[in-house]
Specification:
The structure holds 2 protein chains of 2 kinds. Chain A is α/β, with parallel strands linked by helices. Chain A contains 18 helices and 11 strands. In chain A, the strands form 4 sheets. Chain A has a 5-stranded parallel β-sheet, with helices on one face. A two-stranded antiparallel sheet of chain A has the order 1-4. A two-stranded antiparallel ribbon of chain A has the order 2-3. In chain A, α11 crosses α13 and α11 runs parallel beside α18. Chain B is α/β, with parallel strands linked by helices. Chain B has a 5-stranded parallel β-sheet with strand order 2-5-8-1-9, with helices on both faces. In chain B, strands 3-4 form a two-stranded antiparallel ribbon. Chain B has a two-stranded antiparallel sheet with strand order 6-7. The chains are: A alpha/beta, B alpha/beta.
Chain lengths: 406, 284
Amino acid sequence: MLIAYNFLILNMFLDFFLLLKEEGLPVSIGEYLNLLEALNNKVTAFSVEEFYFLSKTILIKHEQFLDRYDLLFGKYFHGIQLEDSEKKEIPTDWLQKEMNRLFSEEEKEMIAKMGGLDKLMERLQQLMEEQKEKHQGGNKWIGTGGTSPFGNGGYNPEGINIGGDGGGRNAVKVWEKRAFQNYASDVELNTRNIKLALKRLRILTREGVEDELDLHTTIEKTCKNAGYLDIEMHPSRKNRVKVLLFFDVGGSMDPYVELCEQLFSAAKSELKHLEFFYFHNCVYESLWKDNVLRYSDRIPTFDILHKFNSDYRVIFVGDATMSPYELTALGGSVEHYNDESGISWLHRFVQKFPNIVWLNPSNEYYWDSLPTIQVVKEIFKERMFPMTLDGLAKAMKTLKGKKVVH
Amino acid sequence: MHEFKGTENYIATEELQVAVNAAIALEKPLLIKGEPGTGKTLLAFEVAKALNKPIYTWHVKSTTVAQQGLYEYDAVARLRDSQFGDTRVNDISQYIIKGKMWQAFEEDGQAVLLIDEIDKADIEFPNDLLLELDKMEFYCYELQKTIQAKTRPIVIITSNNEKELPDAFLRRCFFHYIRFPERQTMIDIINVHFPKIEDELMEEALKVFYGLREIHGLKKKPSTSELIDWIRLLKLGKNTKDDLQNIDYVTTQPPYFGSLLKNEQDYEHILKAKRSSQNTFKRF
């Protein structure tokens, strides 16, 4: 009996572990074994709460995952708890689970961003209608997924919490407090963060003036010199990565001005060899360096393509949101008549510079629905990254090597 | 096995106790993060005190390299000695300066090793310590021998999140995020530091403190260590609860306000926020 029981418990942990993995938390087998070892060593008394503390400390390595962990822990172990200790009524968190299933993280985020209650309800209405069309007859889940969770699931940070916790249950569990909710979403992008992300893009080489004592060679040469000093110098290691930055300005980029300014100031202080240019929506035959003189003082794009050799790392910053003509058609530009399509200019850049990425400040969630973003992404061979901390880090990794890091 | 349960000066939540004890039992380094001033560094000292073990602290700076924690070879001194025909020069071990990690490894019993503010160093720094933390050994090239820990030390690492730590490093650690103390924990902490504090004063002080923390957009929210300092000043200045009442920040301010709020811009921010809320009321 005991063996069977242990087996059951083990299975339960394994399921939980696999659930974490499935939900994208970075957990590895090593950590799982650690957890089992800790349980085996009886590090803690065997209560659910202690298990929660223990598993959290062993499995989770970053506070940004703590909230998701809390959620999953609640989701997985709550049902199990209920089954053996309490009456089998349909608990209110059933709705919450349903909500978890129905709404992706992005959608939850969107709900948060949509603002007031009215807006939310409007959106809700929309969602329900969409669902009705797809699933005829309005299946059961529309009712629950559509309305009740909003009253109850507690996913709306604006706080439409009508239902509260279900009857007959104990006080709120630690993991249900969701104390780490903030750490998940507020990885704020600031100049310092960006600087650190840009630091990844460094190629340290010894070049130039010999300004540092080469201790090892000095000692070696001194030894060979029968103990008489023979000083050897070498250049200090410096970051010699060379970067070209192309900023999309005006129009749809206006909401991201602040973000771009931060990126720009971080890049200027981090990267010694940096050149930057501006364009509007898409690159055509000329670009400019000064936004005030953008109509009078322009630089032919061919000059740029010829002047900088292909070991430059190239970063495009733009939302790639425009009318399709601006990309595909001759004369499609909104500002002038272009003899060649935007696409062909973009192709030239991608061909010339093997290390090239596109940073897109717009919300990654909408990328799939905008055709121009799709086209640009394809031209850039999938090397388009959102302008978040994570996206920036991946972009820098991609820029450094030849592989695309996603 | 000795278990860590906090000390008379240090209130450890159950969560923290579990994390520390798990790290000790499984001999893994424990990575501690949390808001500044929630007692990350202090934890290592208190663990050492509670378990009666010696502590070695390695404070990391932006220029620190991993090698410095192991040992440094003072080649220049040896070079100088060689020029003057000093006989010491034949014994290379004279020029090996042991780092904190080596010292902790050499300890006969188990030691506590604190690697403080690991995020201050270069981004590659944690990667250079992977094997050392895993196996608790390293190779000294000059002496041509492997230095191995007699007993694996309890390693506590703190980070302020200035840099992301590499995955390979994180996988080798246990992790605990010290959350900001809840009211009850905070009362316990204050009681530990000021056993004779009057309840009313504490009540009012906490009200001011949590009120400040709730103001949105502060650059540096006051944390536990600031609260403790502030209460100490209040006690020294023989303040009573009356001094802490009716504070609107515009005309009146709490005594020793500077010890709670360390940023000038935050001070301006509060003034602005409070003023505008007052004006809103006046309009009606």
